[in-house]
């Protein structure tokens, strides 16, 4: 296993490892908490220090679990959480952040995201984010599930260009963002956090992906992650609670896909030829 992870750079200049840990759907089963805490710690051990969560995951319960996992290791993690759209008014965002901080057992989030667009004006949400920054409760902010028109609207808002990241559904079977959203963000240095990078495991059964994996003495998951890791400023955040899977995901950074591999993947998962609506899970 390679000693160092590739990195991405946020517009602020903050450098992050280009592979993190997603936690969506953790926290739902009380008996699984021990394994979930172990998974977070194992990811940190392997240098996958970007830990992503949200206030809505397990109705806030997952933030408690993440807080337990980071109790003695907070400084090692780059901690990301999200405000739900129905809480994203100016005062609501500030209150939601304070609740998340208490559940996580920390006084500051490294990155705070708007989970998706809702009824509250972006001006109010951005104002709240900037206030939280001034108060030292978050270091940076971003968005999630924003398409190009959303990003353009965001950048037209005062301080909207302070956005550091856009977390979106992006994997081999969901390449629509490559037509316009991915280059739009790349041109501005905005990090793309790719959630569900192996399509919640469904990609692993794809015949061509299995073929490319065998040709590289790798696993299908590693090929799917390597595909994303080769994109500029893209940070996949695969979710798993199995330590063996975390190690497998970590091993994807050692895989260099050849031009032939890329051609086979393009044939099996064609890149977009026209604008497509942003997909979400």
From TrEMBL:
<dbReference type="InterPro" id="IPR020471">
    <property type="entry name" value="AKR"/>
</dbReference>
<feature type="binding site">
    <location>
        <position position="115"/>
    </location>
    <ligand>
        <name>substrate</name>
    </ligand>
</feature>
<feature type="domain" description="NADP-dependent oxidoreductase">
    <location>
        <begin position="19"/>
        <end position="267"/>
    </location>
</feature>
<dbReference type="Pfam" id="PF00248">
    <property type="entry name" value="Aldo_ket_red"/>
</dbReference>
<protein>
    <submittedName>
        <fullName>Aldo/keto reductase</fullName>
    </submittedName>
</protein>
<dbReference type="InterPro" id="IPR023210">
    <property type="entry name" value="NADP_OxRdtase_dom"/>
</dbReference>
<dbReference type="GO" id="GO:0016491">
    <property type="term" value="F:oxidoreductase activity"/>
</dbReference>
<feature type="active site" description="Proton donor">
    <location>
        <position position="57"/>
    </location>
</feature>
<dbReference type="InterPro" id="IPR036812">
    <property type="entry name" value="NAD(P)_OxRdtase_dom_sf"/>
</dbReference>
<feature type="site" description="Lowers pKa of active site Tyr">
    <location>
        <position position="82"/>
    </location>
</feature>
């Amino acid at each position: 296993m390679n000693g160092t992870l590739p990195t991405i750079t946020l517009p602020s200049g903050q450098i992050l490892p280009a592979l993190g840990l997603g936690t969506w759907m953790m926290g739902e089963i009380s008996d699984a908490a021990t394994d979930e805490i172990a998974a977070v710690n194992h990811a940190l051990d392997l240098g996958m220090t970007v830990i992503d969560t949200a206030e809505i995951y397990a109705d806030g319960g997952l933030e408690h679990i993440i807080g337990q996992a980071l109790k003695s290791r907070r400084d090692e993690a780059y901690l990301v959480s999200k405000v739900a759209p129905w809480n994203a008014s100016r005062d609501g965002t500030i209150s939601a952040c304070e609740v998340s901080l208490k559940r996580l057992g920390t006084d500051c989030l490294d990155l705070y995201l708007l989970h998706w667009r809702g009824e509250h004006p972006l001006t109010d949400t951005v104002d709240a984010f900037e206030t939280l920054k001034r108060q030292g409760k978050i270091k940076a902010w971003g968005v999630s599930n924003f398409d190009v028109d959303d990003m353009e609207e965001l950048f037209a808002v005062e301080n909207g260009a302070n956005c550091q990241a856009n977390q979106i559904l992006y994997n081999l079977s969901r390449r629509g963002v490559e037509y316009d959203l991915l280059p739009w963000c790349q041109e501005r240095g905005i990090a793309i956090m790719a959630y569900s990078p192996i399509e919640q495991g469904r990609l692993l059964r794809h015949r061509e992906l299995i073929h490319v994996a065998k040709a590289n003495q790798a696993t299908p998951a590693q090929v799917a992650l390597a595909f994303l890791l080769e994109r500029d400023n893209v940070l996949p955040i695969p979710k798993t609670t199995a330590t063996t899977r975390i190690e497998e995901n970590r091993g994807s950074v050692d895989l260099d896909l050849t031009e032939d591999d890329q051609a086979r993947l393009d044939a099996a998962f064609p890149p977009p030829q026209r604008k497509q609506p942003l997909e979400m899970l």
